[in-house]
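A student in our group prepared the protein record below, which I am reviewing. I have pasted the whole thing underneath without changing anything:
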Amino acid sequence: MLEKPTLSVIILGQANSGKTTLAVQLLHSLGTINSSIMERVESGMQLDSSDSIRNYASVLSRTKDEIKRGRTMNLVYSMAETKHFHLNIIDAPANPFLKSMFRGISQANIGIVVLDAEIGAFEAGIPNITTMIRATYCLGSIQLIFCVNKMESVDYSKTRFMEIKSEITKIYKNNGYKNGNATVIPISALSSLLGNHNDDNILEPACGSKMEWYKGGRPCLLDAINSLKAPLYRYDLPLRISISKVFNLKGALVVFGKIETGILKLETEIRLTPHKKQFPPSMKIESIAICRKLVREAKAGQLVTIQLKTSLNPSNVKPGMVLSDFNNDYAKEVHSFKADIAVLRESPFRRGYNPTFNIHSLQTSCKFKDFYVSSNTIKRYERDENPMELRKGQYATVLLKPKNQIYVATVYSYPPFGRFLMWDNGNICVFGVITEVYTDSPPRR
């Protein structure tokens, strides 16, 4: 029997769009959240109370602050299964928590973008939605599904749905996704929670009178997920695991992250990159777990929790570090790198500009050390050698130097470690791909 492929699905959306409510209902319907948990959340409350959605969201929210605010502030990871795929589901925060959102996008190959159908709410969220779509394109051009949620708030209006569909399709195509049409689906996560599955359009196509206009072979959310293309994971490449979270389990070092390439085995000797003086040359593995289930092996595409046999203080290990196989082309520290970039920043910038750099689960500051060439067209028919500054709309080849040594790779060798974006004051200013890496000082020109 063939093993189901794995999809890493990030759920994005503007604040109060109901994305966490959708995540809870999707996970519950697919059997990940059992009925006893849902009943405990519902007990003692009226379904029409103002706190109901906050209570449902608390099923996924982990911190007291998140539960108090009734909104996601950190990445929350869950697993589910459909007839075609294993799903890693990542519930991501909205603005202003860009750091967590970008990290989650870098780990995903599918994005579900939840839009608010309420009058005025979608329009108010367009700047944030644009940032999300732009980030998904910059970090890997992932497949997207748009869910127009809260259809019950506009009486399941076809006119309102078509307005939003038209606008989001324009935003989608104006932010990199020029080929193909956006998949846009009307849903009602609240109706689903209240037991009205005729018009929720989540697990089954809408069959009620309120969504009569959407019938006729059009997909529900689950149909859209099952129709996606399975990603190509590189099991043949050496092991690379991007660390997202670090835990101190009674003094033991436990890390959580995504296997980007290769295969992890219980007997693998692990190296941590960037490597520091106090780090051991390699570390043995105590245990590997996938969704709290102990396993002896895990493959690219899977989210894993690894307990390491080491006396290393967990406080010395940070998200953004990378695990690799000490005996098979382990990940090496990078001093600087050359990249091809596209400029989105409104105002020009010169050498020395130092925005925040995002790649896989890593976030750090990164300085522009040199500009090799720039052009106003992507094919670079007309080139400006050694430009003094870069402006919005230009394409350029540049030299970048991170604040400290990190692990990145060329987009041709390890694609997940070769695509990046840079941001400043909450706006994406640059995105690009890495074409050369230097483990020492770059060669002189």
Summary: Residues 44-53 have pLDDT under 50 and may be disordered.
